[in-house]
User: Which sequence fits this backbone?
């Protein structure tokens, strides 16, 4: 097998990609992971993960490092800081081209993740992981009994607010417009909760604090007045965007939100091409679900390569 | 809320159930797990798990204990040694009856797992986890370069043999009949491998060794002769049976193999009833995939309880 030839190439080395790498390599496949940044993905940035089964509480970077080490020890090769530039995914031999070279493989797993849209205000990056969060289910339980702020007006913002209303003492929803754009039933439910307050026509201008978030400065656009609100956390819900452009350009089908469509085997519309983790249209985006999908994708890729008759 | 009333009841406290418990309780649901044995499920019995992402190598019982502790600390209540005797799953209020009492809940997650059919020969239980295995993907990599034996003649036996042929030095398949009952293409592929040997009309009579498996005694039924074969591991593939009878009796739909049918949200055919882990028809049965399904089931159950309009 030439140096550029592999049994399995995994694009992205977050939780889904690393789980796939562990299973691919353990199955005896010559497995390569290509990661444009460093391995670990979104999990790497989480200051504290308390809901990945097996760890009561662990820094995201530590969990990511453990998975990375395990993936390498399983026999997979991880190329960090190597960005994939194009994919040719049709036919039995696929070509993956990066900024460093070109690789051939019969099977590809797309595990390129997603990113959260920022609201780009002072303090947002500074306090990320120290009060600024993009995921209510992940970080909500850290703020039990506190006052938290949700930024946004769509379904994800209102769903997050509803989720947080069961945990936090008080939830304020800050929205730039004077009407939420979420589903009416959801809006009704959320604003009927005693501990939820909707602040319409209001923009977050700055997130402030010492070590952790303690307040935000907002602008009430109708009055043209600034105001400060004391809060322990800011949940930004301005949108989650899958890193699926490369896949789209290569003929992989996505849904309305540009998430890659997969079936229960993590197959995409192209034979030998799988997807796992936050880039997919799976309804839940958690480390534990990404891991499960990565495992499934790797074992299915194995069956595809070694036993083409396995799935009829 | 009366003592017998819960937001979420999870039947079974293996990896899937515990993951669901962590997420259910963290979401603020009053969550009860009912487990007829002790918590941990199939994972508990594994002497060594090397493929659950995050742990390079961990005893199954230790991983199970960690998940159990995390589930309890999240706020879930686990009743061990409490067997569910009947389920009433229709309508918005469901009733779970055990040997100790009766509970009401709007949402149930079935995570009752499965068990492996044994071949019931001397040494099988004694060496379980010390050379006797029921899962090639789980334990195959522990026997790289060794001689291993697969017992069975169906698709799962042949698939296991094929998987092991890429890792072990030599794979012998012992089958009682003189013809495999697996798919023809699979049989052809497996017996064409240089390091695979098929032993037809042969029955395993005893599994032997000191601390670990070192040989098996077989009977060649046509000749009526006994023979000993030196092997490092015996992979029993006599069938995996889902613990789904209670579910079937309560109107939950299963497939031909009696595995519970679920969709991508882990929903069953009954509103408010979910299933996760080895009892489902998901194609992969690993701790990591059970965990992912448990998480999804819990978050979907949450959405069902709190936001009935959430899924249209």
Assistant:
């Amino acid at each position: 097998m030439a140096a550029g030839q592999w049994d399995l190439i995994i694009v992205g080395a977050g939780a889904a990609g690393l789980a796939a790498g562990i299973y691919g390599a353990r199955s005896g496949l010559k497995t390569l992971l290509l990661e444009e940044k460093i391995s670990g993905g979104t999990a790497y940035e989480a200051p504290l993960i308390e809901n990945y089964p097996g760890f009561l509480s662990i820094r995201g970077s530590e969990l990511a490092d453990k998975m990375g080490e395990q993936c390498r020890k399983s026999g997979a090769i991880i190329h960090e800081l190597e960005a994939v530039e194009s994919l040719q995914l049709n036919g039995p031999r696929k070509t993956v081209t990066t900024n460093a070279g070109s690789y051939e493989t019969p099977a590809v797993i797309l595990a390129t993740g997603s990113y959260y849209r920022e609201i780009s205000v002072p303090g947002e990056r500074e306090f990320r992981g120290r009060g600024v969060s993009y995921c209510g289910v992940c970080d909500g339980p850290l703020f039990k009994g506190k006052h938290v702020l949700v930024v946004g007006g769509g379904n994800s913002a209102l769903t997050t607010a509803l989720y947080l209303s069961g945990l936090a003492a008080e939830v304020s929803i800050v929205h730039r417009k004077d009407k939420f754009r979420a589903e009416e039933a959801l809006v009704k439910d959320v604003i009927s909760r005693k501990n939820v307050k909707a602040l319409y026509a209001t923009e977050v201008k700055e997130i402030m604090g010492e070590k952790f978030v303690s307040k935000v400065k907002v602008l009430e656009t109708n009055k043209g007045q600034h105001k400060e609100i004391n809060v322990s956390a800011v949940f930004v819900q301005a949108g989650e965007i899958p890193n699926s452009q490369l896949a789209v350009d290569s003929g992989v089908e996505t849904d309305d939100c540009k998430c890659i469509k997969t079936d229960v085997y993590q197959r995409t519309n192209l034979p030998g091409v799988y997807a796992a983790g936050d880039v997919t249209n799976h309804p839940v985006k958690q480390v534990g679900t990404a891991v499960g999908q990565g495992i499934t994708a790797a074992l299915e890729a194995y069956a595809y390569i070694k036993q083409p008759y396995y799935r009829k």
Notes: Chain B touches chain A through 55 residues (CB under 8 Å). Chain B has two domains: 2-115+240-309, 132-236. Helices of chain B lie at 15-26, 41-45, 60-73, 136-139, 155-165, 184-192, 245-249, 287-306.
